[in-house]
Amino acid sequence: MKYKFLFLLVMILSSVTLIGQNTDKKLEEAQEEFEGFGYDQAIEKFESIGLSEIADKRKLAISYWRTNRLNEAEDIYSDIVRSEGHISEDLYNYAAILRENRKYDVAEKWMKKFVEMNPTDTRGQDFLDNLSDFGKIVEDRGKQKVVRLKINSEEQDFGGAYYGGKLVFSSSGQHSKAVLRKWNGNGKAFLKVCSADILPDGELNNITEFEAKFSRKYHDGPVAFNSTGDLMIITRNSDQSNAKKGQRKLQLVISKKKDDKWQKPVPLPFNSLDYSCGLASISGDDKWLYFVSNMPGGFGGTDIYRASINEDGTFGKPENLGGKINTEGNEMFPFFHANDHILFYSSDGKLGLGGLDVFVAEVRDDLSIGNVFNPGKPINSNRDDFGLVIDSDQKRGYLSSNRFGTGVDDDDILGVEIIEPFLFGRIVQGVVRDQDGELVDSAVVSLLDGFTGEEKQVITDASGRYRIDNDRVNSFSIMAEKEGYVKAEIISSSEKRSVLDLRDMVVRKHTKISFKLSIKETNTGYPVSEVIVKLVNKADSSITFGETTRFGECIITLDNETPLNSVGDFDLKIRKDGYLTKVISFKMLFEREGLYDLNEYLKRELEQVVKMEKVNVGLDLNEVMEIKPIYFDYATSRIREDAKIELDKIVKVMNENENIRIDLRAHTDSRGTRSTNLNLSRKRAAVSEAYIKSRISNPERVTSKGFGESELVNKCKDGVSCSEEEHQQNRRTEFIILEL
Question: 513-612 belongs to which CATH class?
């Protein structure tokens, strides 16, 4: 029969609150078994009696619950909550059992009744505050993967702590003594501390008892270690019992390693025979001990506390972690994740899927508790889920659970693969330098959240350092700027780390960049004055204008400051009435500040000469541009590949000169009949016209005509013998300017 892990909770709480008295002999015997954790025996005796009192029914229901007989527990609690004399805790327990049976809608109804009956209970308030988020936790969103491990057995295996490449955990299945002592609560052996090797795939292997000399008569474990592995905190039953009740509380003991040997454990100073302390975890800086206790002054049930670990090895006074963590229910199994300042723990007092659910809490730099949330499936299930531990990189971990279908019997250790790490925002930090490597202070660093669009700003200190605390873990862009420098920017991915150290941001000192340009006329070589020069910086779409002097020269200085060793990307546009407008695109590496000869650079790098063609209406563009004749093969109107290159030049002119209109005129040679040639020239004109129109703005600016053989340019008319080259001269296309 499966037993819930709540036997440890029972040990911590020491006893179950019993309501009502019955002096009947059989009931007294049943109650003795119940109070001694012999739930199977209690059930057997209770079932032999016709129970009428609500208090007796409650004990039987709890016995069923403790032994995982949830359907029987549900049936009895269903009767209790509908009977006179029920208390608010009956409503809460009934709802809890319904959740374990996955009857969430019915559980919600009874939780609301619990809130009505006990409106001040924090468990009810947490339920109402988080009810709208229940759909998120009941759905597996693929952020983690939980797998069954091969090591699980019919015994109890749970809890875990990393130590020297091993997982140290508690188990009732490893026995080093000849006499096997069993605990009455579940008929299994008392817990011992065991260890197992962690294999690369996360499986556990080679299970052995961790330290046989620590084994005693009663429960030992779980354990916690400090960061250096030379200090261990063990949870165990006290050697002494409460004189009044004869109960052995849980206590925390400390053992230190000297000369590679663990020393005899010593009890911590805040242990007591009146309450329990156990289930410890140590912070990454070894300054704080987190643990569970039901000491007086808490919220109810078991709470999570924290005590300082002083440099001299003494411990400070325990402090309760407060209402963001603790409830009137039971909070257990704290695990402090050092790298990300996260506290994982389990609770049955907050809205969950059933039984103990794992919760994730943010621990801020000042040790205050920030946001707390339930990660939902698959970390949590409708049963008890607890003891989550995760490696330093948040890649893998281990979880304890008694969920159905994952183990052979009782509590099992499950493997956890972390697909999306648990984080509460992150710190983004780095350094700002100039191009010479000097630190830049008083620079404004701005972080723009890629999801919310929110912006945060800080100022670099005297060491050029900055730190921005961002509430979210989204992708972002970060920018540094300072007067006299060119701003620098970094686009970050949504890498999942709580502290993100960025590469240095380099802000370059402002430099002045100028271009010298000389423009001449294509045919005459004379300087062209009053040319409007427009330089567009593609990086930021900024525009700088200039105008040529009577010597055809101008100097353009960029308005925006430009960093050295950066590459500028520009469009150079030159325009003057009566001339064809031109656009030249180029990129340039700025290795120095000052004046650059643009003519020389364009000729050297692009083999382009900056010249302008004077044009007027009626002019054929072939006369002023380097356009080769648009030739066609004999008797065809198909555009040849070499002709497309030349037509593309016309397309460029049309796009650079938005007001120009042209008439495209196609001619043929004299071979063939006149009517055939006329039709052929019209077809050639039409296909050329269509080619250009499909590639320019305002395509109505292009018209075309076919002239056949009516305007030959040489002697090759009918009856005259000519070479193929001479005939091809007549198969030409003209581009006559109609309007400028």
Answer: mainly beta
pLDDT classification of 637: cutoffs 50, 70, 90: confident
Residue 234 · residue 214 · CB < 8 Å: yes
Q: Are strands 465-470 and 385-390 parallel, antiparallel or unpaired?
A: unpaired
Query: Residues of CATH 1.25.40.10 domain(s) within the chain?
Result: 6-120
Q: What are phi and psi of 130, to 5 degrees?
A: -110, 5
Give the Cα separation of 68 and 497 in Å (integer): 40
Please name the fold of domain 621-739: 60s Ribosomal Protein L30; Chain: A; (3.30.1330)
Check whether domain 426-507 has CATH 3.20.20.70, yes or no? no
- Residue 552 CA to residue 467 CA, distance in Å, equals 54
Distance, CA of 735 to chain centre: 60
Give 387's contacts (C-beta < 8 A, 6+ positions apart).
158, 159, 160, 222, 333, 335, 346, 398, 399, 400
Task: Identify the pLDDT of residue 408.
Answer: 41
CA 262, CA 212: separation in Å to the nearest integer?
Answer: 11
pLDDT range class, residue 696, cuts 50, 70, 90: very high
The dihedral formed by the CA atoms of 15, 108, 20 and 7, expressed in degrees to the nearest 10: -20
Structure token pair of residue 533: 């020069």
How many Cα atoms are found within 13 Å in the side-chain-facing hemisphere of 538? 12
Give 114-166 pLDDT, tens digit per residue. Answer: 999 999 998 988 888 888 888 889 999 888 999 988 877 666 778 889 998 89
Handedness of CA 20, 25, 31, 36 (dihedral sign): positive
Q: How far, CA to CA in Å, does 367 sit from each of 299, 337, 427, 453, 673?
A: 20, 13, 16, 29, 99
Q: Return the C-alpha torsion angle 274, 9, 105, 83, nearest 10.
A: -50
Which of 649, 574, 662 lies closest to 619 in space, CA to CA?
A: 662
Non-local CB neighbours of 500 within 8 Å, separated by 6+ positions: 426, 427, 428, 429, 492
What is the C-alpha separation between 292 and 275, in angstroms, rounded?
A: 11
CATH for the stretch 6-120:
1.25.40.10
CATH numeric code, 144-418? 2.115.10.20
| Collapsed DSSP state (helix, strand, coil) of residue 696 | coil
Domain with CATH 2.60.40.10 in the chain: 426-507, 513-612
